[in-house]
Structures are given as C-alpha cells and as structure tokens.
Amino acid sequence: MRVISGIAKGRKLVTFKGLDIRPTSDRARETLFNILKEKIACSSFLDLFAGSGAIGIEALSRGAENMVFVENRVTSITLIKKNLKKCGFSEGPSRHIKIIHKDVLIYLKTAKKKFDVIFIDPPYQTDLAEKSLLCLSKKNLLKPDGMIVLEQYFKRSTEQEISSLQCVKRKKVGDAFFSFFHKTKGE
C-alpha cells in the first residue's frame, strides 16, 4: 500500500498483518480521490474508523490542511503514527493533525468541529455505517457544501436518504462501494 498522489506520493505505508483490518485498496483510494479532488485542497478532513490512516494521509498528501483521525484500536493508533512519520507529517497544532483514540460513536456524540469531508469506513460486517450516519445527521459537523463519504462492502449498501442526509452519488471499485452524502437543503 502506498500514497497515490501529492507531496508524499509513492511512500509505502505500514499495514496490518492478517485479515483483522481491511485497508482501502490503492485502486479504490485513487478512484475516491479523483472524485473528491476539488474538495481536498485546504480542507478539514475527518477520517472515522481510520485503521492504518491511509485515507487521511492521502488527503494530507493532496493538500488537506486539518486532519482528524478517530480510531479505537491501540494497534491502529500506533500504525497511524508510524505512517504519518514515514510520510513526513507530524501530529500537533502546527500541522493541524490530531489523532483521537476513542470509539467513533462516542466521538460523534461530543464532537463540535466542522469538516469539509467526513470519511466513514467501519468494519464491513457491522451496523456501524448506519449508526454513524444517523449520528452525523443529528449533528452539525459538515461545513456548507461538505460531503460525507461512506465505504462499505459492495454487497451491502445504505438507504439513499438517512434523516437529513441525501446520497448524491455511488461508486463501486472492486469490493468497495462508496456512497457520497450531502445534508439535505434546509438543514
């Protein structure tokens, strides 16, 4: 697994051994960021269920200014820190990079900061996708014209509309299925 584009292009990322965690493939990340390209530069980006940090690091490499990784596994937190270091990014206020070691649903209930892009990549065989979207629909964490991106297994998909969120685009890449949500008008 490597960084696809930007200032850290080509850097190899440390990944998990075994099948416990499933990082987003290089091809799927490239497709995702080709769709998001105008939204990334100078953006604030929230990476939920961050795993190895590959999505957030790709966003940083492409110009995201503020990055928040949220992950509850200690092994994942360690990997995110290693990958940030390998790519020349450092956590802290000067880089506006923050790693939060917390359950995603607990984080979402207390979060106040607004983001341009929120990426959700929960474990495939759980109901955490729906629960995360419901939390986000109740909170005002998206900036105007912000976008939520949900990655799921291609045989599973969410509703087109979840409370105040409307799915505006879907894209299948290999086993990954991306759904892109905006807040509905008037929200």
What does this structure look like?
- This protein has 187 residues and is of the alpha/beta class.
- The chain has one domain: Rossmann fold, CATH 3.40.50.
- Helix content is 29%, strand content 28%.
- The protein has five helices and eight strands, in the order H-E-H-E-H-E-H-E-H-E-E-E-E.
- It has helices at 26-40, 54-61, 74-86, 104-110, 128-138, and strands at 44-48, 66-71, 97-101, 115-120, 142-153, 161-162, 165-173, 176-183.
- Strands 3-2-1-4-5-8-7-6 form an eight-stranded mixed β-sheet.
- It starts with 25 loop residues before the first helix and ends with a strand.
- The model has no long low-confidence stretch (mean pLDDT 87).
Please give the order of strands in the largest beta sheet: 3-2-1-4-5-8-7-6
Cα-based radius of gyration, to the nearest Å: 15 Å
Envelope shape: globular
Work out the number of β strands.
Answer: 8
Helix content class: 25-40%
Under CATH at level 1, the class stands as: Alpha Beta
Major sheet details: 8 strands, mixed
The CATH architecture assignment turns out to be 3-Layer(aba) Sandwich
Helix/strand/pairing category? alpha/beta
The number of domains is: 1
How much of the sequence lies in strands comes to 25-35%
- The span between the termini is 38 Å
Average pLDDT confidence is: 87
Which fold name is given in CATH as the topology?
Rossmann fold
Spans of at least 5 consecutive residues whose pLDDT stays below 50 are none
Q: Give the SSE order as H and E letters.
A: HEHEHEHEHEEEE
CATH H level, superfamily name: Vaccinia Virus protein VP39
Counting DSSP H or I runs of 4 or more residues, the number of helices is 5
